[in-house]
Amino acid sequence: MKKYLSCLILLFSFSVFANDSYRVFASNTSFLKINDVRYVRSNSVFYDISSTGGTSFEIAYSYPNITYLVILIKDKNNLYLKEASETIILPRTYGDEAANTLNLSVNSALLANLNFSNVSVNSLFKNINLNLSEGEEGKAVINIDKAFLYHNPNEKNKTKMYLIAGDLVSIIEYRSSWLLIDYKRQNGVNIRKWIKIDSIL
Prior knowledge:
Order of helices and strands: HEEHEEEEEHHEEEEEEE
Low-confidence stretches: 1-9
Mean pLDDT: 82
Strand order of the largest sheet: 3-4-5-6-7-8
Strand content: over 45%
Structural class: mainly beta
Radius of gyration: 20 Å
């Protein structure tokens, strides 16, 4: 019974009903890995599949602090990716200015060239594929003792400046696990630098 359940979870199969029978038009055996199945069975990961009218499908795949959402569109005999997003739940903070989540989207140009049958969660949601979702620029709170600032999003461009836990920043851009932020000093001067995304998690 356990083997049957695992196979059911790992195989995503979409079919249409025509001429008194079902015909599979798209399937994927690599979207989830076997480790993900173990997590699902231990109740730390949840997933859901829903359909709207038979031509649009949503797959939601949630860890305790992150949710992946993939929207699929049926076109003739294929299933294509319309949208793919990743929502990160941020730590609870004081005040109402900071956001509760950070929403990232997979580059739409990349999605246009993908067929659902040969993608996986890991390949789709690589850091390099993600951008801030449209209109997502918001505020977040530094959540580590020292968050060093960088001129550019790489280790070689580290400055001597840093922010401390509780500092409020404005998020401008996301790039491969780095955030471009604005920070307003007490003297009113703005600093625009890069920080690691871990600084707000």
